[in-house]
Records
---
Amino acid sequence: SSGINAEYGVVGEGYEDDITLDNVRGSSKQGTAFVEDNILESVTADIGAVHLNFGDCAINELHQMTFTLTNHSSTDPYRFSWTPVPNITFIPNTGHLHPRCSKDIIAEFKAGEPVSFQTMSVPCKVVKITFPQPLAQVADWDDRMRIIRWVSKKPRKSVCSTAEEERVASPS
């Protein structure tokens, strides 16, 4: 006999997370960073965990690493918020991710005294959100954004007079 011909049927299923952490890069020469999928649990999305190793850092010296938070959903906007942790700051800390959009996040480490972290969990709460108006009418938002308005220091005496003004920034 010359052989047996057989046909096999293969069935599979693919899956893509709605929210992912990508493009982890660091400015610290001694630091390393990588993404490990499917570890960090959030309210509505499993977005993976970012392992940031800032290496040996001098006291009171700022070290930064960046990564991208991406919404792969074609329909759902999300709100994200990082849990506060001593010596580590995320910029932006809170914001919205529109469908098919991404946002660069900066992780900053600065300590005023010697500290050592072996493994620390820094959860990011991710929640699906809705808006009362169509999504096309909703502006992008995160906590870095400010509303600037000019406020007079002295009341104006007449329409023709000018008053000193000062810039006032407040969270949007």
Note: The radius of gyration is 24 Å.
---
Amino acid sequence: MHTTKFLTVPAVSTSRHDVSGWRLGWMVIPEHLVEPINRLQQNMFINAPTISQTAALSCWDKETIEELEGHVLIYKASRRIILDELKKIKELDQANIAPADGGFYVYVDLGDNNVVGGNLGSVAMCKAFLEEEGVAFTPGNDFEDPAGNLGDRRFRISYAGGVETARAAMEKFHRFWPSWIERVQSAK
């Protein structure tokens, strides 16, 4: 009889190890599950390339860990700048701002008052912000159920670019925001 019931499935991640898109993981499993899981794995997916697996091993080198912990501090500082600056925008309900704790994005819901139907939502806002200020925020239509309307109410701000990038982006967003509100109000 097998009494070990634990499976551990960790991964090398984008937010912790700066390996965006690598999708590398491993399993710590009881001996009796090795063969059945191996059979399943062989039929479910193809492994990451050997070079990626080998490169991922350096994630546990002391120098790498120190470097990555420095990145985490930069992410925290950038995140704080974005959240603090969003608090200054009175039209945004703070309850509609999701401060990500595991990735490097802040997710914002524009709310009912800052969108108009299907033509002035987050897609239009992000497009206008990119064209007018040269800053890319990501509309929520990539992250929400396409059957609903939340995708065009929400957008995402990355804080992976560093402190100065976050500061400059939010300065430009403050400059852009009043014109967005004016467009919305004119269209109502």
Note: The longest strand covers residues 105-109.
